[in-house]
Amino acid sequence: RAVVEAVHRLDLILGNKAAYQEVFKPENISLRNKLRELCVKLMFLHPVDYGRKAEELLWRKVYYEVIQLIKTNKKAGESPGAALTPCPSAPQHIHSRSALECAYRTHLVAGLGFYQHLLLYIQSHYQLELQCCIDWTHVTDPLMGCKKPVSASEKEMEWAQLACHRCLVYLGDLARYQNELAGVDTELLAERFYYQALSVAPQIGMPFNQLGTLAGSKFYNVEATYCYLRCIQSEVSFEGAYGNLKRLYDKAAKMYHQLKKCETRRLSPSKKRGKDIKRLLVSFMYLQSLLQPKSR
């Protein structure tokens, strides 16, 4: 009941037109912290029945929806004292050195710290051995002697393993959002978290979708296309990857037809090489789009 009530109150705040001005007020941060504590308690009291639901609520209501609000509200950050122009590498609405940007950065850092702690706690509580999968593991002290047997069912252990996988995906997402801000280069960190999530649960394709988003338009979208295809071909695919892939194929078709229209003029060897590489990659992408089944 307390979780439902906290979620309802947070929804009312986010539904407000001036939500971006309210979301980082102390009382609302306190409300999110309370919801986070309740969700964690629910996870470990009833992991099989409510663990997954509690995880989803915690991520969406405490972190993700706040991030999306800041990223999509173009007028946020225009408070007194904000810089006149936004930093080019930051989301358009966040003005460099503004109070909003500071609060947003703190929100992301706090999220990273929380999910790293939760990842360690789940490993410790269920005595999971993930040393062969990830480098952020709970290490037991060999001097303590024999471990106590875990009093958890097979379904609880399965939840714990997949919860670790999802923690790593969330950590990757938070690092990816950090990477969008000025003065922060966390692309490799985000990539590392996503690949470790794949190590924990290789049958789940979601991290490949996130890697595709992280890749952006590198190599004329070839890298992102590869990641989306890997996601789709996974045993447990992610529905959003189909739309992401179609968007890239549509871009490839436009670029291909634009290249064909361009007049061929004499270029220096170095420029000609760059043009040839672009033509090759764009043509390859366009060919991929033509070879895709039309079922979706």
UniProtKB/TrEMBL annotation:
InterPro entries: DNA/RNA-bd_Est1-type, Est1-like_N, Est1/Ebs1-like, TPR-like_helical_dom_sf
Gene Ontology biological-process annotations: nuclear-transcribed mRNA catabolic process, nonsense-mediated decay
GO CC annotations, alphabetized: telomerase holoenzyme complex
Domain DNA/RNA-binding, residue spans: 190-289
Positions of the Telomerase activating protein Est1-like N-terminal domain: 53-181
Alphabetized Pfam families for the sequence: EST1, EST1_DNA_bind
Listed GO MF terms: telomerase RNA binding; telomeric DNA binding
Keywords from the named record: Nonsense-mediated mRNA decay
UniProt entry tagged with the keyword Cell membrane: no
Domain of life: Eukaryota
PANTHER family: NONSENSE-MEDIATED MRNA DECAY FACTOR (PTHR15696:SF7), SMG-7 SUPPRESSOR WITH MORPHOLOGICAL EFFECT ON GENITALIA PROTEIN 7 (PTHR15696)
Protein name per its UniProtKB record: Protein SMG5
